[in-house]
Amino acid sequence: MSNNQERLQKVIAQSGLTSRRKAEQLILDGRVKVNQKIVTTLGTKVSPNDEVAVDEIPIDKEQNVYYVLYKPREFISSVSDDKGRETVIDLMSEVQERIFPIGRLDYHTSGILLLTNDGEFAHVLMHPKYEMDKVYIVKIKGTPRKEKLQQLQKGVTDEGELLKAVDIKLKSVDRKAETTIVEVTLHEGKNRHIRRMMEKIGHPVLKIKREKYGPITLQGLRPGQFRSLNRQELHHLKSLSNKNVKQ
Known about the structure:
The chain has six helices and 17 strands. By secondary structure, it is an alpha+beta fold. It folds into three domains: about 55 residues, RNA-binding S4 domain (Structural Genomics Hypothetical 15.5 Kd Protein In mrcA-pckA Intergenic Region, Chain A, Roll); about 90 residues, Alpha-Beta Plaits (2-Layer Sandwich), CATH 3.30.70; about 80 residues, Alpha-Beta Plaits. The strands form four sheets. Strands 7, 8, 9, 10, 13, 14, 15, 16 and 17 form a nine-stranded mixed sheet that branches.
């Protein structure tokens, strides 16, 4: 048996097609072939020389890549957009691998966005139990009272969802413009999470920028620029994700 063999679901996930969990379901559903034969047994191992196909389409065995992008405002955090708007992938057209965003930043939000072709890695980072600090600088209308900010740490309910901040700090107040800058830390980012929270306490958001994602910062990047994660950053993220998988 070759030492280079990997579990079939891991190979599918590493191709960027889907997460390992969803790859397992594809196998159980009989949608995966190895060397032209349907395989439905989880734990089946394959070598680099084996041909793996999902729904009759061979998967490409790409080297895993990991990037951080300084997403500008008014770009879609997606591989494509049915309305024809520009996506973050358009900013990274020189990348040869089939990358996709890990999570998303909404259309009007700027800042750190991670992209990869490693489906398993992305799935773990987006898991609700994965408590990675994501730090945002937020400009809002008005000046909230201390108790209102504390309310956000306890959580507010909007459309049946509990929205809360892990931490929130008042950074500065512009009395003349009647605006305030706050720093918000989240673990789980739901759709329009910060905007909805702030609207619930009566202080609509004017601008949001994500400045930190765990150990990753925007240092050295301008809007629209990207770089590969360095070895230390990637090791830190993977060590935490491995810890999460074992729990």
